[in-house]
Design brief:
The chain contains 15 helices and 7 strands. By secondary structure, it is an alpha/beta fold. α1 packs antiparallel against α12. The structure holds flavin mononucleotide. This is tRNA-dihydrouridine(20/20a) synthase.
Length: about 325
């Protein structure tokens, strides 16, 4: 998620689930080709399995970028056909490509011709005045014929005229049934549903209709949710009994970042939502927000923030 996630966020989420597939924020094909690759594509081995999301609409550039990403070790390439921002529209990629299935198919075919890893597409139901029955099928059929290995559908339209990207994540109504119909029509194609899934129960219920689910904001804002993914979705043991144990297990990663000259806040900014809904959550956030941003902040700041939650829980149990 652009402006929110980065490699440290993913490393943190990986501590919470061994199995969830993690995605990078969108990186444009030209940035991959011409930009600072270590900054844009660098990731830690612990992040696997990890998909890189590309933005673009030039098949040649996307194929070049895909080759670079595959060589960097990504496990999957995902093409963004959902971002509604003006800048992205100006570059003729993202959600406006819902209007041009043939071009998206050419992009997918060009990438598939060059890389052996899966190439998937994340799209909307349609844009603006498109008929979602026609638009989604047209996009899906075109990219599948071009070799796409799966679809992730953000289950709402994007309105390219008049709504900001933020509004475009909430205002166009969700229509899960439309994604279910797509899946029913494409029994052999992996179809995942995204949009508005706030709890693991809600996400699990979707698996009666689709093959996978993608969590965006809920995963970022309440990462504790991820602690039960491995057991609930994959039938495996969860990596940690609770968030306290997960933070302890994450300490070596944080320590290595600090030892390499990085700042605590680079990492802890992604952890602010960890104890959401628990006593002490606010004190945890406040401690990280005030002490964690100091240049000299070390692991002791993270430990002290976690202690705020422990103390609040002890106080509550004494009162009870
Ligand atoms: C800050 C922010 C940045 C986002 N950046 C991307 C992005 O880079 N690529 C993408 O496919 N979707 C992006 N999204 C959209 C989410 O992936 C997701 O489709 C959307 O938020 C709906 O899912 P949710 O209700 O689970 O959050 C972004 C969302 C937010 C809030």
């Amino acid at each position: 998620m652009m402006d929110w996630t980065d490699r440290h966020c993913r490393a943190f989420h990986r501590v919470l689930s061994r199995r969830a597939l993690l995605y990078t924020e969108m990186v444009t094909a030209n940035a991959v080709i011409f930009g600072d690759r270590e900054r844009l594509l660098g990731f830690s081995e612990v992040e696997h399995p990890i998909a890189v999301q590309l933005g673009g609409s030039d098949p040649v550039a996307l194929a070049k970028a895909a080759v670079i990403c595959a060589a960097w070790g990504y496990d999957e390439i995902n093409l963004n056909v959902g971002c509604p921002s003006d800048r992205v529209q100006g570059g003729n990629f993202g959600a406006c490509l819902m209007r041009d299935p043939a071009l998206v198919a050419a992009c997918v075919a060009a990438m598939k011709a060059e890389v052996a890893i899966p190439v998937t597409v994340k799209c909307r139901l349609g844009v603006d005045d498109q008929d979602i029955e026609v638009a989604l099928d047209a996009l899906a059929d075109a990219v599948l014929a071009a070799g796409a290995d799966g679809l992730i559908v953000h289950a709402r339209k994007a309105w390219l005229e008049g709504l900001s990207p933020k509004e475009n994540r909430d205002i166009p109504p969700l229509d899960y049934d439309r994604v279910h119909r797509l899946k029913a029509r494409l029994p052999d194609v992996p179809v995942s549903l995204n949009g508005g899934l706030l709890t693991l129960d809600a996400a699990l219920a979707q698996l009666a209709h689709v093959d996978g689910v993608m969590l965006g904001r809920a995963a970022y804002q309440q990462p504790e949710l991820l602690l039960r993914i491995d057991s609930l979705f994959f039938g495996e043991e969860d990596p940690h009994a609770d968030a306290f144990a997960a933070v302890a297990a994450f300490e070596p990663y944080v320590a290595a970042h600090l030892a390499a000259g990085g700042r605590l806040h680079d990492i802890t900014r992604h952890m602010l939502g960890l104890f959401t809904g628990r006593p002490g959550a606010r004190a945890f956030r406040r401690h990280l927000a005030t002490e964690g941003v100091k240049p000299e902040a070390g692991l002791y700041v993270l430990r002290a923030a976690v202690d705020e939650v422990r103390k609040a829980e002890e106080r509550r149990s004494l009162v009870a």
